[in-house]
C-alpha cells in the first residue's frame, strides 16, 4: 500500500531541511535524493521542450503547416506560431525541422534525444521503481541513470540554438563567457550595426551582473 505523503511546508528554511536529514539512515537520504533526481530530470525535460518551442517560434524561416493570414498583426503572428508549436509533440517538431535544412548529424542527434525522452516519459516506470521498495544498490543505479538523462535534456536545450544557427535559420554571435546574442534571420535586410551593438552590450551587462 502506498502511503499518502505528508504535505510539504511552504518556505521551509534550509537549516530545517538539514536537521530533518541529519538523523536519517543513509538509505532514507538516498531515497529522498532519488525523488529529487526524478523531479530534476522532469524539470530539465520540460525546459528542453520549452526552449525548442521558443527557438522555433522566433525563426521566421521555419514554416508551419497552418498558414496565417497576411494581415495578421506581428503579436498575433508570433502568438499563434507559439500556440501551434506548443500543441505539437517533440516528434512533430523534429519532423518540421527536418524540412528546413537541418544537418543530418543534427537530425540524428535530435532523434536520439527524442528516444531518451520517450524512455523517460513512457518506460522508466514500467519496472515500478518505487523508492520504498528498492535496495541501496538499485537506487544508486537509478540515480545515475536519471542524472545522465538530466544532462542529456539540459545539453539538448542548449544545443538547439547552435543547430538552428548551423542550418542558417538563426544568427548567433558568441560572446565567450558572457554568453551569446541570438537573432532571427528574416528575409528583410540586415539589422543596423547600432542595433546589434546595443543587443551585445545588453547581454554582456546582464551576464556580468549575475556573476
Spatial strand arrangement across the major sheet? 1-2
- Runs with pLDDT <50, length 5+? 1-8
Shape: globular
Q: What profile does the largest beta sheet have?
A: 2 strands, antiparallel
Relative strand content: under 5%
H/E element string? HHHHHHEEH
Mean pLDDT: 82
Our count of domains comes out at 2
Classify the secondary structure makeup into a structural class: mainly alpha
> What is the terminal separation in angstroms?
48 Å
Q: Report the count of strand segments.
A: 2
Radius of gyration: 22 Å
Q: How many helical stretches?
A: 7
Q: State the share of residues found in helices, binned by percent.
A: 55-70%
Write the layout of secondary structure elements.
Elements: H1 14-21, H2 26-57, H3 74-86, H4 90-97, H5 104-123, H6 136-166, E1 170-174, E2 180-184, H7 193-209
Helix pairs in contact: 2-3, 2-6, 4-5, 5-6
Protein architecture, described:
This protein has helices spanning 14-21, 26-57, 74-86, 90-97, 104-123, 136-166, 193-209; strands at residues 170-174, 180-184. It is mostly helical and 211 residues long. The chain has two domains: 23-168, no CATH class; 169-211. The protein has a two-stranded antiparallel ribbon. Helix 2 (26-57) packs parallel to helix 6 (136-166) and helix 4 packs antiparallel against helix 5. The chain is globular, with a radius of gyration of 22 Å. The N and C termini lie far apart (48 Å). The relative contact order is 0.13.
Amino acid at each position: 500500500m502506498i502511503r499518502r505523503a505528508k504535505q510539504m511546508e511552504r518556505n521551509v528554511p534550509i537549516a530545517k531541511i538539514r536537521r530533518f536529514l541529519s538523523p536519517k539512515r543513509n538509505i532514507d537520504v538516498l531515497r529522498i535524493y532519488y525523488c529529487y533526481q526524478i523531479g530534476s530530470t522532469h524539470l530539465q525535460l520540460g525546459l528542453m521542450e520549452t526552449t525548442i518551442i521558443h527557438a522555433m517560434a522566433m525563426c521566421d524561416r521555419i514554416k508551419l503547416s497552418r498558414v496565417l493570414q497576411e494581415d495578421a498583426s506581428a503579436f498575433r503572428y508570433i502568438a499563434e506560431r507559439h500556440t501551434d508549436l506548443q500543441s505539437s509533440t517533440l516528434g512533430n517538431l523534429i519532423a518540421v525541422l527536418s524540412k528546413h535544412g537541418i544537418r543530418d548529424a543534427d537530425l540524428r542527434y535530435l532523434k536520439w534525444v527524442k528516444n531518451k525522452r520517450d524512455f523517460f516519459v513512457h518506460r522508466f516506470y514500467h519496472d515500478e521503481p518505487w523508492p520504498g521498495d528498492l535496495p541501496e544498490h538499485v537506487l544508486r543505479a537509478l540515480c545515475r541513470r536519471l542524472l545522465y538523462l538530466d544532462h542529456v535534456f539540459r545539453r539538448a536545450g542548449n544545443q538547439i540554438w547552435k543547430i538552428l544557427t548551423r542550418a542558417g535559420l538563426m544568427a548567433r554571435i558568441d560572446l565567450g563567457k558572457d554568453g551569446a546574442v541570438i537573432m532571427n534571420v528574416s528575409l528583410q535586410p540586415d539589422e543596423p550595426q547600432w542595433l546589434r551593438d546595443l543587443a551585445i552590450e545588453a547581454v554582456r551587462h546582464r551576464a556580468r551582473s549575475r556573476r
